[in-house]
Design a protein that fits this description.
about 170 residues, mainly alpha, two-stranded antiparallel ribbon, 2 strands, about 0% strand
Length: about 170
Amino acid sequence: MQRMFCKLLLPHCATKSQPVQTAHVFRALYSSKSKVPDKPMWDSINYDKLPKLPDTDLALVEQLERISLVEFNNEAGLVRLRDAVKLANQMHLVDTEGVEPLDTVLEDRECYLRRDEVTEGNCVDEVMSNASKVEEQYFVAPPGNIPMKKRDKDHLSRVLDSKADTDDVV
């Protein structure tokens, strides 16, 4: 990849023995358009500004298990769930003021749109014939690969209660 890049764009580019120079040349080409900083920027996280973690009740845990096909029926599972929410909550601290929304990851290229004109139509039967299962002219998504087993709700309630007793803040 590095050699191909060098051969195509810069004939006198660095070789395998000089990868730093190649990276520098590559960065120089795109630095004016890229929104990624040249060096990492480290900020400490102010945990006081993060939103409060939602209460983890039995209904929420069962819904998340059903949707994600991941079991949270023990303390390790609940800790993993809460840690994931804490990590996602850090996104609230990102200052996005003045940042334009991203239309495409190809920020250095013009992405042309075509006209929205109907060229063919009335092909519902042909399109639906491609689906493995259809109900009332809607595609039916395949079921999850592992069905969740019904288990004792008392067990999950005990795990939630014991975790709430020992839960510490951040």
